[in-house]
Amino acid sequence: MDFLPIITSVLLGLAVTWLLIPFVQQNATPGSSYFQARFFHHTHQGSISRFGGVALMAAFLTVVMLSYLWLPPFSAVRQSFRSVVAASSMAMFLLGFWDDLKPIGARKKLAGQILIATVVWYCGIRIDKFLSPISGHLYDLGGWSWLVTTFWLVALTNVINLCDGIDGLAGGISLMLMGLLTFLGHEAMSFPMICSAGMFGALLGFLRYNFPPAKIYMGDGGAYFLGFLIAVLTLLHSQKGTVVAALIAPLFVLALPILDVSVAILRRGLKGLPLFRPDREHIHHRMLKFGFSRTRAVLVMYGISALFLFFAFILLWQQGRGLPILLGFMFLTLLLAARMFDFSRHWFAVGRVLENSLEMRKETHYALTLARWLELEAERVDSLDELWDNFVFLAGKFGFARAKLKKSEGTKVWETRKDFVAPDDYCRSYDWNEGFAGSLQLEGDHTKMSVKLFEHLSELAAEAWLKAVIHWGESHGPTPSAAKSNPTAAIGNTAAGAAPR
Asked: Best label site of 25, 121, 178, 216, fewest CB within 10 Å?
């Protein structure tokens, strides 16, 4: 086996991102608070460019062009596969990049992802058969092929995107997967191998700037592109469209984010929230609440994912045999990690969540309606003082006891009674670093609501205030306070006593 193509691809991908990212940083930094408002629930900080995916895409296209020079002439079918991978990956990147520039809505994004995945299936990159690694029986999927292939491509695309909530996590997991895919194809010179090796190098260069504290983010464009490319390369690595270890192994590396996303979707459904709406209950959020720094949190998740990567290599070496044993080890690892970091009571307390679900769903629907009303009111009021008066009405309807807004111009306080003192668990603060959204503090009445309900409603109220203020700014132009400070700085961060940054 000639390792020169692998080494060259890695170095080429590394060089492209390493050299291009500083240029992207200087020339593609968001210029309005509009960008940060969309990421209220992320742990990211500051006005940092979200266009790192541009460098990753440039590295991919460079490697694709290199493959035309290195690889021998393909058959017509294999040649078309290379074109399909390049074109569909570019399309998925553009879909996410469009959303980075201006949100297009979850339904439109999902429709676009399904359309791109359908084109890939139609062009012949698909899952036609399923080989059970346990029984060894080969199942012909027949008419289910489109559904299974589309689900695979769309699911992996979104898993990578949804785990991009803390600096370096999505890039690090993608790096591990590209390394796994490079190993999977190292015995033969092939287009999938060249691509995965090149993207391994590109992600090394990207993590130089994305590791905590991040200097650039990959954005939806980069996350969609990486997730989709990983998904489509696993299809090409699988044997004649049959699902074997080549498809199962990447799922081991993705076990932690898949579990996190699955629990998040269940949690949001029980609360009555939109399934893909972000929140502050992900694994990395809870690690930060546990007292971890961002660096330590992401390193711990790297360590768990690296252990699962080791399991994936064993699975490939055994060609799918021993899958039940490896699954048992993986489940045991997740259980021990959940217990160690006090996640288990949140992950597995399904009965308690179900018991409170009906009340929570009613409160959520009511709160979302009021939040939407406040955002619409932002177009009708003439000043932020009037908008605050409307927010006070919302705070009263939510059942809060006190709301305090601190800005450079002064402090505004609304309270049900002056002598009220809220317990520490019923105080939440949201600091937007002197931007025109100010610093918001909310206090709840412990005699009227549970701690969980207060935490839930305070998140919705703070997000509603932020969106309404930014919507007001877009409708009425910049405010004096916004001119004095960068309104995009640290929007979505929380101060002491609140959910951690």
From this structure: 25
